[in-house]
């Protein structure tokens, strides 16, 4: 195991559609640290059509969580890369108690201090956001039909690529993902608090993504 030398792990925590991905991308600039999204990593494997992608595809399309063991391994390999030496941003991990325990061990062994940012967004807003979400398959930019539409409908502002809807952003799958969140993931806040991890609640529905990011960035710079 390559042992990285300290720093902070900022854990962006919140339901699907709470803005974790958007905030992680903005926070990357403020923290000068890499953004590690387990969802993105899994989708890359699916796109590559490799064995891991084939293994997780059906479950992900149905809005189910993939196995703890698999995700823990992906994260461990990723945080041992040299760009994580001074800290990193976790988006979408941990999502179960088992993953939270594994993460704790991984961070302790690397002398990395976790800070949890809990993005809180109203349920109805989350549904509206997820069903109106569009993604550029080329550069990864996220759009929202209602709050942040592209200049030309259906096309990415940056590279003109045709925007797509994620396979798991259909209505029935959104419901399944939110159920997984409330059953398996939400209880982690209690776990974090009881284990003495610094946690901060952030209102993820008021203001533009940049305004929310400025708040988060201020909070983080006082912590790390
Ligand atoms: P996300 O992009 O974070 O919304 O994740 C999309 C999907 O990837 C989830 O609905 C799960 O199927 C899978 N996934 C991502 N992260 C995890 C995780 N930490 N544990 C289990 N499944 C995950």
- Termini distance? 25 Å
The CATH topology is what? Rossmann fold
N-to-C series of helices and strands: EHEHHHEHEHEEHHEH
Number of strands: 7
Tally of helical segments: 9
Principal-axes shape call: globular
Bound molecules: adenosine monophosphate
Kindly state the mean pLDDT as a whole number? 92
Question: From the coordinates shown, what is the CATH architecture?
Answer: 3-Layer(aba) Sandwich
Largest sheet: 5 strands, parallel
Number of domains: 1
CA gyration radius, whole angstroms: 17 Å
The level of helicity is 40-55%
- Percent of residues in beta strands: 15-25%
Content-based structural category: alpha/beta
- For the record, the CATH class is Alpha Beta
Within the largest sheet, what's the order of strands?
A: 2-3-1-4-7
Q: Which ranges are low-confidence, i.e. pLDDT below 50, for 5 or more consecutive residues?
A: none
CATH superfamily: P-loop containing nucleotide triphosphate hydrolases
């Amino acid at each position: 195991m390559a042992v990285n030398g300290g720093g902070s792990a900022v854990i962006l925590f919140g339901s699907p559609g709470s803005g974790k991905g958007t905030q992680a991308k903005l926070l990357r600039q403020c923290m000068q640290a890499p953004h590690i999204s387990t969802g993105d990593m899994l989708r890359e494997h699916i796109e590559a059509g490799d064995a891991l992608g084939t293994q997780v595809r059906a479950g992900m399309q149905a809005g189910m969580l993939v196995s703890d063991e698999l995700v823990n391994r992906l994260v461990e390999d990723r945080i041992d890369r040299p760009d994580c030496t001074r800290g990193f941003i976790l988006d979408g991990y941990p999502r179960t108690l088992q993953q939270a325990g594994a993460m704790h061990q991984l961070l302790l062994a690397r002398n990395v201090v976790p800070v949890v940012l809990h993005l809180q967004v109203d349920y109805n807003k989350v549904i509206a956001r997820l069903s109106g979400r569009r993604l550029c398959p080329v550069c990864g930019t996220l759009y929202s039909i209602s709050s942040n539409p592209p200049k030309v409908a259906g096309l990415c502002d940056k590279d003109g690529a045709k925007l797509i809807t994620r396979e798991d952003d259909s209505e029935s799958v959104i419901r399944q993902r939110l159920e997984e969140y409330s059953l398996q993931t939400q209880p982690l806040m209690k776990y974090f608090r009881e284990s003495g991890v610094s946690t901060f609640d952030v209102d993820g529905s008021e203001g533009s993504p940049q305004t929310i990011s400025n708040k988060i960035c201020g909070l983080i710079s006082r912590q790390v």
